[in-house]
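Re: Re: ligand-bound prediction request (bumping)

Still looking for help on this. To restate: I need the protein modeled with iron/sulfur cluster bound, output as structure tokens. Inputs repeated here so nobody has to scroll up.
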Amino acid sequence: MRVKVDQPKCVASGQCVLAAPAVFDQDDDGIVQVLVDRPEAVHHEDVRESVAVCPAAAIWLEEE
Ligand code: SF4
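Reply:
Sorry for the wait, this slipped through. Here it is.
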């Protein structure tokens, strides 16, 4: 799994960080930051939840 984000689309809601705090963070403006773009399997379910709850559809996954 590879995590991709489109920062210009991000509306700084923080939902991704709540769902997967090991993988996402926010900068000083609240814009998403990817901490780990190839998360370990233990985090995959959380990442998929982040994709589902992001109100801006700013996160997507590439399966490897
Ligand atoms: S959930 Fe989406 S809109 Fe909200 S901070 Fe994360 S990437 Fe940005």
